[in-house]
């Protein structure tokens, strides 16, 4: 009897154990099905942007309908699984969070591909709808908090990505300017057109970005509303960082700062072109005086005030950015002047390295070096007229400084006394020029360069003449060599009088070149004024015949 009872008990236990095993196997298989659903879930952009039922009557695409139906089916399966297996809540919690994670991973992948704000809102709306659906099934899973944290990461990534693309697009505009300057694109006024395009690209790009951010802030979606203050902070930080990087980009493009990606931007071996540097200088002025003000007004109109508080202050500081670009504008303008001056210095070196000035022949015409110099000045004038505005100040002439043309500042070498053939008297005149020089030195020669056509051209002319003076001081001239310098300078006075803004300072520097040549001359007897005028007029007539349209 005991043996029979024991046998029956064992069979009952085996049956119960067998049923329990079957239940566990079923539980595992069902959970595996739920996991496989998430593995096979491919969230395409079109599906997760438009599969929300709250789209104001917009018909859903078949794929969107299928996506929404599959999520609802998954939620019902989870609900049933939880009822059948109440001890499996923790596993289901992880499953629900995996579903939310997959939505945000898909969203972040599309953000990297430059996602429009409207599409981002659509994706977040679908994600939030699905989260609420799962939250009804698993209210203790903490899906809302989990979603807020994931949305925090995704929105911050979107804002950063939006600014990255803004910088990339604007850099592309500047690269086109570089190609234009190289002659890849032919236009009558390439720099002028490029400046306007660059201004519009910066302002319009910034306004489009702000419009995208405003769309996020105005959207009536709980997951976005909770991040309003943070989004405003990220936008302000983004603009502050954007303009800082833009300043660095300007310095790289101008050659003032080296970057490992420089060859990738322009192409290996490409040189920085002066026209681009001048454009960047004026663009810096535009950012300082116009763009920052407009962007600042738009940022201040965003709803909410950010989460930084009064102690920390706003993340976007317009005054700081204005100072950065004010400094950049001045630095780039000086860089342009230096680049152009260096090019002229190459002409100077060739000019003074070629002839033997001690054995120079009697001058018969203005030297061709002056033609090359004036051609370079014409190039500079063409560039600055396209980029820079005209100055508001009147020209500073000799009469503005000394009251008359017969002042002691007038160079004695220009007077009729110097045409005497007596060498001793000529040297006496040279001594008088030194006295005049002492008075002239009180004149302020190198003033601050303004962002105007006249100021930049005058600065380059002054630097060139000062360099010319130094080259002259390194030579020794015979009478003919000195007279050649005198003739060239006399011709320059005629041609530069309408070009330079500070005529008095330019005249002074021109006179200084003649004085320096006289000091280094073995027999400083100047040409007579009549001869100077005749040779100058002959050169002007020759130039006029060669360029009848000028």
From TrEMBL:
Keywords: Golgi apparatus, Lipid transport, Protein transport, Transport. Residues 392-417 are annotated as: Disordered. Its main location: Golgi. One of its GO terms (biological process) is Golgi vesicle transport. Residues 401-411 have a biased composition (Polar residues). Transmembrane segments: none annotated. The keyword Metal-binding does not apply. One of its GO terms (cellular component) is membrane. The keyword Protein transport applies. Belongs to the VPS51 family. Component of the Golgi-associated retrograde protein (GARP) complex. Acts as component of the GARP complex that is involved in retrograde transport from early and late endosomes to the trans-Golgi network (TGN). This is Vacuolar protein sorting-associated protein 51 homolog.
